[in-house]
Amino acid sequence: MSVGNPSFDVFQLSDEHVEMRKILRDLCDKEIAPYAADVDEKARYTDEALKALNSSGFSAIHIPEEYGGQGGDSVAACIVIEEVARVCASSSLIPICNKLGTMGMLLKGSEELKQKVLPSIGSGEATASYALSEREAGSDAAAMRTRAKADGDDWVLNGSKCWISNGGKSTWYTVMAVTDPDKGANGISAFVVHADDPGFTVGAKERKMGIKGSPTTDLYFEDCRIPGDRIIGEPGTGFKTALATLDHTRPTIGAQAVGIAQGALEASIAYTKERKQFGKSISDFQNTQFMLADMAMKIEAARLMVYTAAARAERGEPNLGFISSAAKCYASDVAMEVTTNAVQLFGGYGYTVDFPVERYMRDAKITQIYEGTNQIQRVVMSRALLR
Ligand SMILES: Cc1cc2nc3c(=O)[nH]c(=O)nc-3n(C[C@H](O)[C@H](O)[C@H](O)COP(=O)(O)OP(=O)(O)OC[C@H]3O[C@@H](n4cnc5c(N)ncnc54)[C@H](O)[C@@H]3O)c2cc1C
């Protein structure tokens, strides 16, 4: 056994990952953080972040090099999302949605479809969204009613989707629709719709608690005609593709949660050192110290689980359901707890928009809800345990 072996690299990120994080941190602090409060207050799109991420090649680093992308691995994609969310959760929806909206294609799309769609996203010229949810089909997504029918060489879509992140901003939408209503989940297919396709329209923005800089909208399909080759995989495989997508992307929501929690922790450390009560810094009280220690400890555990889930997805391991749900669920519960405690540590000031922690707390909440609520993650995990 060797002691003090610096080349022992188990549980250590590669030099490239570490270097990338440094570059991102600088970029995010300088070009994204200054706009985070304004984006939130005005509920406006994160234009500055899109520009900064595009010009540095970080808006969709998961796109493979053969499609004009950076070919970043799953852990690298999580680091991008984590670092952006550390300063602005809304902006982190740019890389999140780009991965979510393209993963089905990457997993099951034809070569022609990938060649048609992915280069525009890899170059930053276009962005993508993922459309599974409907008003009456949320957790029970297979109960969807949007229909797609073959018509000559084309597919014609009718129906609507709701809660679509970056709706109206994205160029490409991966849309799940029923092609054979008699077959339940096995009668659902996945398609790629372009924003300019005839019969496709976007609804009004939802007025939300958090991630206000990422528009969330309905999508409408009225005899929306798309070319036949825009189907992902075979008819009837769409629901499986949608779920396989989530196995790969739930760790990215975990990464978003870790980033939000990290931002709240750093703000709390700075504030509690500065703020004086009873003649000393509030960080001198053991209660504060223990709260900070618990926050940091849980963030560290969440981060490790997120990277583990991402690494397992990258290796193409089977049965990712448990670990990707666990990473998303644990990290988002940690983010909610940490951000709530951050507000507590700021006292009354934490309850105002003059400090960022109330935004972190509002933004954290969505990580417990989307890509499947944390109750649904527990359904997925327990199913894997009891199988
Ligand atoms: C801001 C935002 C962005 C989103 N972005 C997207 C997107 O880009 N693409 C997309 O397709 N969707 C998106 N969603 C939808 C999101 O994934 C759903 O809201 C979520 O899956 C829950 O569905 P629901 O809202 O219909 O809640 P419901 O399914 O009605 O759930 C309500 C409550 O019941 C619980 N519940 C339901 N079923 C069970 C069960 N079997 N066991 C235990 N508890 C259960 C839930 O956990 C929840 O607490 C987004 C949602 C929001 C709010």
From TrEMBL:
Gene3D superfamilies given in the database record: Acyl-CoA dehydrogenase/oxidase, N-terminal domain, Butyryl-CoA Dehydrogenase, subunit A, domain 2, Butyryl-CoA Dehydrogenase, subunit A, domain 3
Cofactor: FAD
One Pfam family of this chain: Acyl-CoA_dh_M
Top-level lineage group: Bacteria
GO molecular function, a single term: flavin adenine dinucleotide binding
Chain ranges of the Acyl-CoA dehydrogenase/oxidase N-terminal domain: 14-125
Ranges where the Acyl-CoA dehydrogenase/oxidase C-terminal domain occurs: 236-386
Keywords carried by this UniProt record: FAD, Flavoprotein, Oxidoreductase
Catalytic activity: a 2,3-saturated acyl-CoA + A = a 2,3-dehydroacyl-CoA + AH2
Family annotation (PROSITE patterns): ACYL_COA_DH_1, ACYL_COA_DH_2
InterPro entries: Acyl-CoA_DH_CS, Acyl-CoA_Oxase/DH_mid-dom, Acyl-CoA_Oxase/DH_mid-dom_sf, AcylCo_DH-like_C, AcylCo_DH/oxidase_C, AcylCoA_DH/ox_N, AcylCoA_DH/ox_N_sf, AcylCoA_DH/oxidase_NM_dom_sf
Start and end residues of each Acyl-CoA oxidase/dehydrogenase middle domain: 130-224
Homology family: Belongs to the acyl-CoA dehydrogenase family.
Name used for this protein in its record: Probable acyl-CoA dehydrogenase fadE25
Species assigned in the record: Mycobacterium yunnanensis
